[in-house]
Amino acid sequence: MNKLMRQFLPFASLILIICALSALKPDTFLTRDNFLNVLRRSSVNGIIAVGMTSVIISAGIDLSVGSMLALCGMVGAYSMIAVGGADPQAGALVLGTIVGVITGLICGFLNGVLITKLKLQPFIVTLGTMSAFRGISYVMNDGEAYYVSAYKYLGEGILPLWKTFKTTPTGEEIEVLHGIPVSVLIFIVIIAVASFILKYTRLGRYTYAIGSNRQSAFHAGVNVDRNLICIYTFTGLLVGIAAMIAASRTASAQPTAGIALELDIIAAVVIGGASLAGGRGTITGTIIGTLLISFLRNGCTLLGISTNVQLIVIGGIIIAAVAVDQLARSRAEAGRTGS
Amino acid sequence: MTAVNQKDKSLSGDVALRMRGISKRFGPVQALLDVGLTVRSGTVHALVGENGAGKSTLVKILAGVEQPDSGTIEIYRRPYTFDRPEQALAVGISMIYQDLDLAEHLTVAENVFLGNEPRGYLPFTVDCKTMVKKTVELAKSFNFDIDPTAIVSELSAGDCQIVEIIKALARKASIIIMDEPTSSLPEAEVEGLFAVIKRLQKKGISIIYISHRLEELIGLADEITVLRDGKVVHCESVTKLDIPQIVRYMVGRELKEFFPARDVKIGDVRVSVDGLSSDNGISDISFDICAGEIIGMAGLVGAGRTEIAQAIFGVDKKTSGSVMLDNKKLSINSPADAISYGIALLTEDRKRTGLCLELPCSWNITLPNLVAIGMKRIIRPARENRIVERIGSRIAIKWLGPEAPVRSLSGGNQQKLLIARWLLAESKFMIFDEPTRGIDVGAKKEVYTLLNKLAEQGKAILFISSELPELFGISDRILVVRRGRLVGNLTTKETSQEAVMHLAAVEEK
Fold it and tell me: What would the pLDDT profile of B451-460 be if each residue is shown by its tens digit?
């Protein structure tokens, strides 16, 4: 009940924003293209936010996701070009994608090992790897991007469900495919998998336990180190997937991709009700948080509000969301404790 | 008001505090109903009752932390209402919480004047010299021996308590509330605290003293108020009461057989610890435990009892020695290993190393048992809840249901929940480290009964406690630990509390 209430607020705000924008800009906002566009954009941030949720539930933080996104994209695109030449095709693209995703996995594993084996704070370790990953991304091609013009499917492709016909001005009939964007589909699959892991597996259960009280979890026989490494590796894997989608959207890998992305991601997770102190958070909440930020950005753009002002709005929302959540919690607490 | 003046009042037994008709309701729970409390100046007034009886709520109202629904508070005959703790502080009411809230990294003097610092000559500065000087003066006037420049985290538990008391005195407290002041204090420092309380009394300061350790009230307190279910059931001078009577008032029945009779057949050796040493200060520990046997472990705080448990359970690194269970040598490198062999450790500090407070009761119970209940790969919440409910009702945990967060349970029920965890694990060898600390009399008796039942089932039980009466009440043998070594292995029936205390406390030449 309490849990429902906590998620209700971000959810209600999301609906409110959508309704308000629909009323203000019915012709530009309330179109299928615009919605699909927002969802496509959300999928990159959302996939990373799913990983970040598990990290934050374990009372950790991963500041390196933005740099990792750039690095995975660069390594992936480099492999495509190295294997397939200047204009790589299908086989090379698939291979490069796999390499990019594995790069994320390795980066995440590295974070996890440094945190657990050197017994360092996640904040410090990932602050360091944030800088290092970014540096490697710049070094790879002297600060230049890699362009892979044929790499479009993950970012722009759709899974066709139905088709319509459109008459061109020249009188020809052409076929138009409609369906779910591939990136959104991947996002949905990842949501399902991650929700399942958090709710129905020991790894998920241990994540909450470690975040709530690491010492208690250890004394109850939880292998804290192994589980933390799993969590950071899982997050790295998701960043790898998100990186390849992001690269595919622009058909290129930029070393400057994802600068300050970690802040947006953490904001989405926190708006979704997770606690930076650990032990609390849900995938559903994170999805709502991600969509909230995406629609807000989209709406601001449609309303002609500059990106600079958007930053102020989003900052306000983060603080308001956490403040309201805190208030609700202290009320619930006061109602519970007796003598 | 001068000290002389206060002294006069204490002689005439003037009333320092009178609370009347205090009622307070939290949602559906009537925490207090028409409660009155009268404390005379310069006396120690004990406030006792089981967990949940309303003691904490009552003193929180007095300290301005909670606001009563009805009722009045008079201090030296003047009525007050407190909306905030600062208002209570301002009229001389100071509360010392069970888990002292000192700033660990600051010095004694800085803590004493925290939030109340003397101003320096320049704006926004603190006059450190005056702070230290005043702390010394206060300490001197009450005969405390404490270095005002020491860092609090380096002080003993007893000294921290003294810092809290000086802090209260610096705010000119006339009434000091102490919530379970001895619960975290080593035996040796308890006497020191009592001496301090006597000195405070002489200066006309009144003490409201909350404790679960009834023995210590006799001789310390002047009067006693017993609360039960949010109502005052008895108020009398302590000299006219004895412990069984107080217990009867607290629980509404006399606990005649406080320690359940033990009639257990002792079987073969199940656990055999041989030459155990660890990197945490214990060396060459050897003992056996037979099936059905409860072995008590006595020793002063810091003697190494908890460390022995931690070495067995894989929390600390073993440097030598072995642990055998049912004639099998175990290789334990982590709690996970220990649990897989069927060893359980109920840790001494349930909040720090036992529970995940925000998480549901059911999750806390199944945390070490997911593999054992067949949920190695996939957790089935409905089945999990059924299992948890069954085990919960078996030992009568009072909760709002398995989904409720552990935080919402009382201390005694939190402890039962942790015991339920290890019952579910069906452990063969169970180590209980201070299982009755900070829980009320009724819950204590339930824990004793449970320990007996587990022994009856043939489990090997190691029971660590700082309270000699309970060690003698339920264990078959008592091991005594001093400075990380085993200095005694005694049969309970053939020894005395004095003998155990002597072994634990006195260094042999």
Answer: 999 999 999 9
ipTM of the predicted structure?
0.89
Tens digits of residue pLDDT in B348-407: 888 889 999 999 999 999 999 999 999 999 999 999 999 999 999 988 888 888 999 998
Q: How far is residue B17's CA from residue B159's CA, in Å, rounded to a whole number?
A: 28
CATH topology of domain B1-92+174-256: Rossmann fold (3.40.50)
Distances (CA, A) of B505 to B187, B474, B484, B498, B501: 10, 22, 13, 10, 6
B51 contacts in A (CB within 8 Å)?
339
pLDDT tens-digit map of A137-186: 999 999 999 999 999 999 888 888 888 888 888 878 888 888 889 999 99
Q: Which of A313, A282, A292, A294 is nearest to A52 (CA)?
A: A282
Q: Which residue has the tokens 């005002």?
A: B148
Tell if the CB–CB gap between B367 and A209 is shorter than 8 Å: yes
Q: What is the dihedral of CA B136, B139, B145, B149, to 10 degrees?
A: -40
Distance between A4 CA and the closest CA of chain B, angstroms = 14
Closest-CA residue in chain B for A196?
B378
Which of B286, B193, B277, B212 has the alpha carbon at shortest distance from B251? B212
The predicted pLDDT at position A337 comes to 44
Q: How many domains does chain A have?
A: 1
* CA atoms of B56 and B50, how far apart (whole Å): 11
| Residue A77: inside a domain | yes
The CATH number that domain B267-342+427-504 falls under is 3.40.50.300
A41 touches chain B (CB under 8 A): no
Q: How far is A267 from chain B (nearest CA, A)?
A: 22
Global pTM value: 0.79
Tell me, what's the pLDDT at B272? 95
Helix H or strand E encompassing B33: strand B29-40
B401 min Cα distance to partner chain A (Å): 13
Among A200, A204, A279, the residue with its CB nearest the CB of B356 is A279
Closest CA to A240 of A64, A71, A42: A71
Q: Which among A68, A100, A67, A65 is positioned nearest to A81, based on CA atoms?
A: A100
Low-confidence ranges of chain A (pLDDT < 50): 1, 335-339
